[in-house]
Write a structure and sequence with these properties.
This protein is α+β, with helices and mostly antiparallel strands and 293 residues long. The protein folds into three domains: 47 residues, Uridine Diphospho-n-acetylenolpyruvylglucosamine Reductase, domain 2 (2-Layer Sandwich); 115 residues, Uridine Diphospho-n-acetylenolpyruvylglucosamine Reductase, domain 3; 116 residues, 2-Layer Sandwich (Enolase-like, domain 1). Helices cover 32% and strands 26% of the residues. Strands 4-5-10-6-7 form a five-stranded antiparallel beta sheet. Helix 9 runs antiparallel to helix 10 and helix 10 packs antiparallel against helix 11.
Length: 293
Amino acid sequence: MTPFELVEPRTIEEALALLDPDDDQVRPLGGGTALMLMMKAGVFRPKRLVSLRKLAKLIGIAASEGSLAIGALTPLSDVERSAAVASGAPVIVRAMRRLSNVRVRNVATIGGNLAHGDPHMDLPPVLMALDASIVVLGRSGSRSLKVEDLFAGYYETVLKRDEIIAELHIPPQGARRAAYLKCTTGSADDWPALGVAVSLEADSNVMRAPRVVVSAATEKAIRLKDAEHALSGAAIDDSVLARAGDAAAEEAETVSDIRGSAAYKRELIRVYVRRAVRQAFDGAASDGAGGRR
């Protein structure tokens, strides 16, 4: 690991001033679980890291009338154990049980999880299915951004170099039901070969306003609008689920990596979209772990 400067500002304003919009070797540092691995591997060689850990204003979870506001520096383990999150968005708690391991969850932050832009992360597809948004702070002010609009490509986001994620907002889910399934080629908490998140409303036997998101098999987490169209307003049965799975497999541009070929992942999407929709409709009774193949 090459030498670097570590600075620890105590205010958000100071932190933003230390970031350089023209220098990609200056980065903000949250929990650092992913960034440190990249540095140890020599993939990233920063000259300055701006630690955000002393910015207490960015830590905490608040609930109001069904909505959730989660500070970007809140550790994933705090989110996992939060009664407010369990009540307002239980799919997040279920997904956390198979998100890496407890040591990582104790250090990693929810803002860093999003800002890293890794398509294999479990939370981005879940948050996209919940229609979550983030508050972004920069020298020029603040802006709100849907999580589904955050990712620009493989390990790429639309964040500017002098911007940080300040807060995550999850709107009231009401009677919506959600599920997250992951398929891993290793242990149950390993990086997934595929992640599928689904959220929908159930009107008797009919599905309304579905949101279908896949990740890991693609360059970034994406919504599958064709699959959503196949489900919207339809009564749930095997033929509808098959059409949605086929539409998802056709729509997603899968990529090959050490976890499987693009063709293999396309077939995973076909199967797992059907399973995730069924699980969401049935109330997501299982733990959301998905499984190994």
